[in-house]
Amino acid sequence: RTPRSASLSTRTPRSASLSTRTPRSASPCTRTPRSASLSTRTPRSASLSTRTPSEWCVLQMWLLPWGFTSKKVPDYDDMYSMGRKAVEAISKISGTQYQIGSSTSLLYPSSGGSDDWAKGVAGIKYAYTVELRDRGSYGFLLPASQIIPTGKETFAAIKSIARAIVCKT
């Protein structure tokens, strides 16, 4: 199946379920980027969603679609190679090591990933979700002392992806 049937997490008063299988976004936080991505006439080459992991997660991860199935995207090797460039750029800046793969291969099946939506619905070639620092100490609340280092390494990753895309065109 195509990712158009990917699960997108929703939290609505009318829904007892936290996860529904629909290509539509439920919250204003997801509707706005969705509308912007679909309304532009310029094709997007890359999409990067970042977040800090929960306190139980001890890995930094560069996640590829699909999160809702163990099947790989058709261009998995190309996406993995691009992700490898990004995590190498991060490592050069700070020594931080990232694991690359889908959430089903590194964690568990997940619903609602923006990388699944960006790849499957919006047709964005390089779509990733990145689990940033830390290693389980702070959970979702990254301390201020780690914000700038995280920003620097993330920017290095973004630059490496942009350079690689430009070189391919």
TrEMBL record:
Q: Which PROSITE patterns match?
A: PEPTIDASE_M14
> GO cellular component terms?
extracellular space
Note the InterPro entries from the entry.
Peptidase_M14
A single GO BP term for this record reads: proteolysis
Q: Does the keyword ATP-binding apply?
A: no
Q: Where is this region: Disordered?
A: 1-48
Q: Report whether Zinc shows up as a keyword of the record.
A: yes
**Record SUPFAM superfamilies:** Zn-dependent exopeptidases (SSF53187)
Q: Name one GO molecular function term.
A: metallocarboxypeptidase activity
What are the protein's UniProt keywords?
Carboxypeptidase, Hydrolase, Metal-binding, Metalloprotease, Protease, Signal, Zinc
Query: Which cofactor names does the annotation list?
Result: Zn(2+)
Q: Where is the Peptidase M14 domain?
A: 1-165
Q: Which residues form the active site?
A: 131 (proton donor/acceptor)
> Which family is annotated?
Belongs to the peptidase M14 family.
This protein is called Peptidase M14 domain-containing protein
Species whose genome carries this gene:
Timema cristinae (Walking stick)
